[in-house]
Write a structure and sequence with these properties.
The chain has 490 residues and is an alpha+beta fold. Helices cover 56% and strands 10% of the residues.
Length: 490
């Protein structure tokens, strides 16, 4: 059989079995996304309050639901093992690392239930496929043959081998044969498989089924190979169809088992690109969410309204006000009063996405970014700065500014200034010049921009506005009111 010859290492792309190329690559990507979605759903079953982390109480409840024999001491020991950064909670990356840890003694299925897990027991059928003569170790010839079959199955269906099977068989043997005796013991095979599975993103609960199916498919290929060698029943259409089916099966399962998950790699070592960061502004909390934040701030801290004072004389309104147009002085007083009212209620000055270690790219893709907000508010003790976190759909107050400050320092300055301008524009349909000046002043106070930058920006904007007023014939009203163009712009 020409197909059989090619599996064993000859020409790799037979016309009888063309690569599935783009369609297969798309299916492979969808399969990996489905695996990651399964992990996310299990995480959400643990994260009862939907705040993006699993605390000790949530872990205790779930573990005791899965097995009544799980004690508080075991939960504490487990928490210490899997809480890598020691912050007292499990984030999504720590959770994924936990349930994909091949050294673990148990697994968590897609239904959230706990079961025992032993990778050594699960890979025995695969070891037996490599160890064809059953002598307890894999010879050089056995290893090269079985490895080549998997590699060539991938090439025949995908157009190229994937992941660990991109390496030539001889190089793979050097990796697996740790002591260099040209034999692979079971312990060496186990260690090699752990390395291959390290970045796959497959939960431990799926490993037994996938290894069993892969071993069965390889057994079928070896059986057909035996018939081919003995020239008995190997050349019929039924045998050829069966061989093709098992080639695809080996390719599909191997790709799923061993191919690295890009999403998992992004979570563990997140490439925080400028594009991803700026894209996050498009998924910022809605205007309605920000209004809820202001109401929550008022509820938590009360409202102290400023004195309502206008310029009066003998109980009458000041004659300095123009009958048809408010004067500049009145506009300034009104603006000052509006500012005091805004601060009395609470003003969102900055809302930024938290750059959670290993989670930003994933959270952005799934619309689950954690947002931190800074609110300026005046009260009995004067002006104060408050900090909130958007947990799920609810704004929760933060104890201090440490998380917010840490995130702000990690952000590019240009992004932070843009986020600040966005925050000042939240409550209105357009960003007023007064709001721009307030945002730039705050940015300067936070050392995000220099005084020269603020001055340069304001100068350029004034020139732009003056030009626009002349182009649109808006300067006549200012001149009729006895104001210069520069005064009108200011």
């Amino acid at each position: 059989s020409s197909v059989q010859t090619k599996i064993r290492g000859a020409n790799l792309l037979p016309s009888a079995l063309p690569p599935l190329s783009a369609r297969r690559s798309h299916w492979q990507k969808m399969s990996k996304e489905k695996d990651m979605e399964c992990l996310l759903q299990v995480f959400k079953q643990f994260d009862k309050d939907n705040n993006g982390t699993i605390d000790r109480s949530e872990l205790t409840v779930v573990m005791k639901m899965m097995t009544v024999d799980f004690t508080d001491e075991q939960v504490e020991k487990l928490m210490l093992q899997v809480d890598v950064n020691g912050d007292g909670v499990l984030d999504y990356v720590e959770f994924v690392d936990w349930i994909t840890d091949r050294s673990s003694s148990f697994s968590i299925g897609g239904d959230g239930w706990l079961s025992s897990f032993d990778l050594a027991a699960e890979i025995k059928p695969m070891f037996q496929c490599f160890d064809k003569n059953g002598d307890g170790s894999i010879s050089k010839e056995e290893f090269l043959e079985c490895y080549s079959i998997v590699m060539n199955c991938l090439k025949m269906t995908m157009g190229s081998s994937h992941g660990p099977f991109e390496s030539p068989p001889s190089d793979a043997l050097k990796t697996a044969d740790a002591d260099g005796d040209e034999k692979v013991s079971f312990a060496e095979f186990l260690k090699w498989q752990k390395q291959l599975l390290q970045h796959s993103g497959i939960a431990n609960a799926q490993i037994p089924t996938l290894f069993a199916e892969l071993s069965q498919a390889l057994d079928v290929i070896f059986s057909i190979d035996t018939m081919y060698q003995q020239k008995v029943g190997h050349d019929g259409a039924e045998a050829t169809d069966a061989l093709r089916s098992e080639i695809r099966r080996v390719s599909t399962i191997s790709s799923r088992l061993y191919h690295s998950s890009e999403e998992l790699a992004d979570m563990r070592n997140p490439p925080l690109t400028k594009e991803k960061l700026w894209k996050s502004l498009g998924s910022r909390p809605s205007v309605e969410s920000m209004k809820i934040l202001v109401r929550q701030c008022c509820k938590d801290n009360g409202i102290l309204l400023p004195m309502m004072e206008l310029e009066c004389s003998s109980g009458r309104r000041s004659q300095t006000l123009h009958k048809s147009r408010p004067s500049n002085s009145f506009q300034r007083r009104r603006s000052s009063l509006q500012r005091k009212l805004t601060l009395a209620v609470g003003e969102v000055t900055l809302c930024i996405p938290e750059l959670q270690q290993g989670r930003f790219a994933f959270a952005l893709k799934h619309g689950e970014l954690c947002w931190l907000a800074e609110v300026m508010k005046s009260g009995m003790a004067g002006q104060q700065t408050l900090y909130y976190e958007l947990a799920g759909n609810k704004w929760m107050p933060l104890q201090d500014s440490s998380r917010f400050d840490h995130t702000l320092q990690a952000l590019p300055q240009a992004f932070a200034v843009a986020a600040m301008l966005n925050a000042y524009a939240y409550m209105t349909d357009m960003l007023s010049w007064t709001a721009v000046q307030q945002a730039l002043t705050l940015a300067y106070r936070k050392n995000l921009i220099s005084a020269d930058v603020v001055h340069s920006f304001e100068t350029q904007m004034r020139k732009q506005v003056q030009g626009d007023m002349l182009d649109l014939d808006l300067h006549h009203d200012a001149l009729e009111a006895g104001r210069t163009l520069a005064e009108a712009v200011s």
